[in-house]
Amino acid sequence: MRTVTLVIIHCSAVRPGQRSSARDIDGWHRARGWKSIGYHYVVRRDGTVEEGRRPEEVGAHCTGHNGHSIGICYEGGLDEAGKPADTRTPAQRLALRQLVERMHARFPKALVVGHHDLNPMKACPCFDVVREYRGL
């Protein structure tokens, strides 16, 4: 197993009426020339957690950090006008927290951060990940 030092939270940057399942994102990423979906997990609006790449595989979700991270993406991140916003549903918040707790148990030394924390040019994931998961 590779050494994981980061769990990076992302949003799929879609509006409330748009869908972004793991299958959808896989198609978008393949269209960009990638081998498959870049994230390891996708958390849907209803709280369903879908698997993307296996955790043993290097992801393709955060330049310079893919080799030592797990990428988790929640469906959403834009408001109706297309502006960055924390659009997580209560079911997503719960499922995302449970998934982050599982990843923290599996990789206890890994820091939990948002994409924005590693690339300030990004709004993703549109909430303060470090503050929200500080207690882990």
Describe the protein:
The chain is α/β, with parallel strands linked by helices. Helix content is 26%, strand content 16%. A five-stranded mixed β-sheet has the order 3-2-4-1-5. Strand 2 and strand 3 form a beta hairpin. It is globular.
**Sheet of most strands:** 5 strands, mixed
Chain-averaged pLDDT: 95
Count of helical stretches: 4
Poorly predicted ranges: none
Could you tell me how far the N terminus lies from the C terminus, measured between alpha carbons in angstroms? 23 Å
Helix vs. strand class: alpha/beta
Apparent shape: globular
Rg calculated over all Cα atoms: 14 Å
| DSSP summary, beta strand count | 5
Percent in helix: 25-40%
State the order of secondary-structure elements, H for helix, E for strand.
EHEEEHEHH
Q: Strand content of the residues, in percent?
A: 15-25%
Strand order in space, largest sheet: 3-2-4-1-5
Characteristic key phrases:
136 residues, alpha/beta, 5-stranded mixed sheet, 5 strands
Q: Concise description?
A:
The chain is α/β, with parallel strands linked by helices and 136 residues long. The protein is built from four helices and five strands, in the order βαβββαβαα.
SSE arrangement:
Layout: E1 6-11, H1 22-31, E2 41-43, E3 49-51, E4 69-74, H2 90-106, E5 111-114, H3 115-118, H4 129-132
Parallel strand pairs: 1-4, 1-5, 2-4
Antiparallel strand pairs: 2-3
